[in-house]
Amino acid sequence: MKTLPVGEVKAQLSEILEKVKQGESFGILYGKKKRPIAMIVPYLDSEKKKERKIGILDGKVKITFADNFKMTEEEFLGLK
């Protein structure tokens, strides 16, 4: 992720948006201390999301979770 001050974002907005379309992300810095305040990231269209497959067992097993099962998706995937 690249970071840019507000002035540069204003001056180069078209170029930045072209890069965002290609998958890049940009942080926006603001104020005298150049603190990060926002990000410009690619838009993810929810219609384009595909259903996740569960590895080699996809279509061969059925996975269900109890109603009281409490685990975040990140914990389930081992990301947290």
From TrEMBL:
SUPFAM superfamilies (UniProt xref): YefM-like
InterPro entries listed in its UniProt record: YefM-like_sf
Annotated source species: Pelodictyon phaeoclathratiforme (strain DSM 5477 / BU-1)
Assigned protein family: Belongs to the phD/YefM antitoxin family.
Protein name per the record: Prevent-host-death family protein
Taxonomy, superkingdom: Bacteria
